[in-house]
Specification:
This protein is of the alpha+beta class. The protein is 21% helix and 40% strand. Strand 6 and strand 7 form a beta hairpin.
């Protein structure tokens, strides 16, 4: 089954408009990977916070697009480097058992597959904290793989 979606998202003054042609079946996990990730991380009782902090040194006024560009210029993922990407969705999310619990979640189609990027500006350090997840794997699959 071929699925065609048109997405228009406006966050503050940032607008993403794109068309997606997909042949994958629509499931809860693939149709809303951000919600799935938030639920998954919230159920981990805070374990997802452990690990190295990854940061992008951009000001708070940087656009999400600028932050994502820096993320993929500096982050080497399990399968290598992202050489191109398209932002599909940007959303503010709350993840339980985290302080502060408000993050920006960005769904991105990349040369390495769909990724969910969590972002948060850190006032104390003057940088953007981030973490990149495979949008088609659960948090538990990621840490046990």
């Amino acid at each position: 089954m071929k699925l065609t979606l048109s997405i228009l998202l406006t966050v503050a003054d940032f607008t993403v408009s794109t068309a997606i042609n997909a042949t994958e079946p629509t499931t809860t996990k693939t149709s809303n990977p951000i919600a799935h990730l938030v639920a998954d991380l919230s159920s981990s009782h805070g374990l997802w916070i452990n690990g190295m902090d990854q940061v992008v040194n951009l000001p708070k006024t940087a656009s999400i697009e600028q932050v994502i560009e820096q993320v993929f210029q500096t982050a080497r993922l399990e399968k290598g480097w992202v050489t191109s990407y398209t932002i599909l969705k940007i959303r503010q999310v709350h993840i339980q058992v985290s302080t502060p619990d408000l993050y920006t979640a960005v769904l991105v189609r990349t040369t390495l597959g769909k990724k969910a990027v969590l972002l948060r500006y850190q006032e104390r350090f003057g940088s953007w904290w981030y973490r990149v997840y495979d949008a088609n794997r659960t948090y538990y699959e990621k840490i046990s793989a």
